[in-house]
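Chain A, query sequence.
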Amino acid sequence: MGQAGRRPIVIEQLSLQDRIWDICVVGTGPVGLALALEFEQSGREVLLLESGGSAVGPASAEASRAEIVDPDRHAAMELAVVRAFGGTSWTWGGRCVAFDDIDWMDRAFVADAHWPVKHREIRPFYKRASEVLLCGNDAFTLPYKRRLTDGLTLDSVERWSSEPKVILQHRARILASERIRLALNSTVTGLNLSADGSRVEGLSVATVHGARTVKARRIVLAMGGVETTRLLLYAQRRWPRHFGGVDGPLGRYYMGHISGKIASIQLNDPRAIDDLDFKLDASGAYHRRRFMLTAEAQIEHCVLNTAFWPDNPPFYDPSHGSGVLSAVFLALAFGPTGRFLLPEAIRLVHTGPRPYRLAAHLRNAVLGLPRGAGDILGILAGRFVGKPRKPGFLVHNRGGKYALHYHAEQVPQPQSRITLGSHQDSFGVPRAVIDLRFNGQDVQSVIDSHALLDHALRANGIGRLEYWHPAQQMPERVYAQASDGFHQVGTTRMGDDPAHSVVDADLKVHGVENLFVASSSVFPTTGQANSTLLAVAFALRLAGHLCAEP
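Chain A, predicted structure.
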């Protein structure tokens, strides 16, 4: 930290000054970082509170541990969140995806899915969000080289951060700033509301020097969806009519995405895979096209928003017969090497269930030499030598057949929720109880979307799908893959009615004049897109509103 400028301050120094800060942001993940940088650029001073220290470690992760009702549906919170300066940017994969226009529409077949803002109000903030997240630019739609029919589009692209650990890019500026004040190892444990409950008069903060109180005119919670919800639920025990009431929206409508693989895509022209692989553009970032159904097709057939892309078959299944993929699996299966190559959550997806079939993978790797050696060297060069680092790899084959990955919207349902349990963390805050649920509509939409995609691929002469399971087994296979915990959407949803939402269109908590939430948890729906880009865009919009105030 000495190279980056001054050291972070400590809360004890603040409390001795008894200072009232203009703006306090709780959390230093991508959203908190974006807020701090935007406030600084606007000439405002901001206090950043971070529960963890400067480095990622298991001790701080323990405080986020939660009771998972169904571990098959939700990742352990120790994997899903990071308490350290930079938050989940330490483990984020770097995928940046814009929400689609259809996500903002009121659809008759998606209940409880109203947004109080329009996409046109948010779209201008994608450019600055792309700069903060280092994904090159905000070109998330690139017209395909030919017109497609039958409800198919290849215009949508995902962009990738040139450095997913965005904290490494922004850390020096934050530490050297005269307007951004950072307090590490400072965990917010409570909201101290005024006598009438209309404003936050102070934050209870646990520090290495004991309990302290931080006062600020405006407070923004950017702690991630689950942790922000947990803090508000704890405050609701003292103020049961706040946040829509005890049995209201707070903690409900918990969503992520439903994703996995149930089919292969067989391309008519194997060379067509070049259009679907990672591309490095003039902005210095990678992007990739995805198959999607048009908004008109989704509405006509009542399916949820879903993106598809060709992928390698599961690394962990040696029946793929690929020496390259088995060599990659063996590297990932060895913990120290695997955690160096990939964030732990992503590594575990690729290594699959135990017991590992190591002998079969070793056989593939040996038989695949020396032909696969060149491919492995290319993968290593792309991931660790090239700048920017290639976000992934796709092993091309002469037959033009690939696994097809889907990433689909999940419908809001109030029974999917976060509550507080009877156990407390080391700071005395009740631990979260997480009950993430997927329902029949989520599953059936995945199946129906595949059928529509197969029809469109054939109609456009691109290829076809080959399913991995009989039709009667498909629902159970889709449901078996249904799991999330990283995108944390819906539990502090935005809306116009305080009885059915937690924050308004400007992210202000209903009924509390100086409290705001900047998190994917404010989204009423998930779309097909990962949450980070939109969460940062909303945070930048909020910063503009707060900076416009006197």
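The domain at 2-92+165-256+413-437+488-548 is CATH 3.50.50.60 (FAD/NAD(P)-binding domain). The first strand starts at residue 20 and ends at 26.
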